[in-house]
Specification:
By secondary structure, the protein is mainly alpha-helical. It contains five helices and no strands. It folds into two domains: 82 residues, no CATH class; 32 residues, no CATH class. Belongs to the complex I LYR family. SDHAF3 subfamily. It comes from Homalodisca liturata. One of its GO terms (cellular component) is mitochondrial intermembrane space.
Length: 115
């Protein structure tokens, strides 16, 4: 039980940290990011231990990169956030992940999809 409580605390801390980091983004990106994070954390609530480890590692990496890009360690003159995805990373993604990535790109650009 103790490990379960500790895990929940770690997940909550990471979740809250990411949402706080998003406050440093432009309003539209903050909203998009917050919605995405909330959805991802909900969808991965009951994943297995291997998926949980990967999930936590990737979101921790995201938080560290975003903190650096926002200049939390040292002020940055211009706000440039995000990283480019290389072809290898895209090839490793499932089809639903690519679709989700494309939908996020459209939302970030203010475009809507006709469904």
């Amino acid at each position: 039980m103790h490990n379960g409580v500790l895990h929940v605390r770690k997940v909550r801390l990471l979740y809250k940290t990411i949402l706080k980091l998003h406050r440093g983004l432009p309003e539209a990106l903050q909203s998009l990011g917050d919605n995405y994070v909330k959805d991802e954390f909900k969808r991965h609530k009951k994943c297995n231990s291997a998926e949980t480890a990967q999930f936590m590692m990737e979101w921790t990496h995201y938080a560290v990169v975003l903190a650096n890009q926002l200049g939390l360690q040292e002020p940055k003159p211009s706000l440039e956030v995000g990283t480019d995805l290389d072809e290898k990373t895209l090839e490793l993604m499932r089809e639903d992940q690519v679709v989700q990535l494309y939908e996020m790109l459209q939302a970030a650009k203010g475009e809507t999809t006709a469904t």
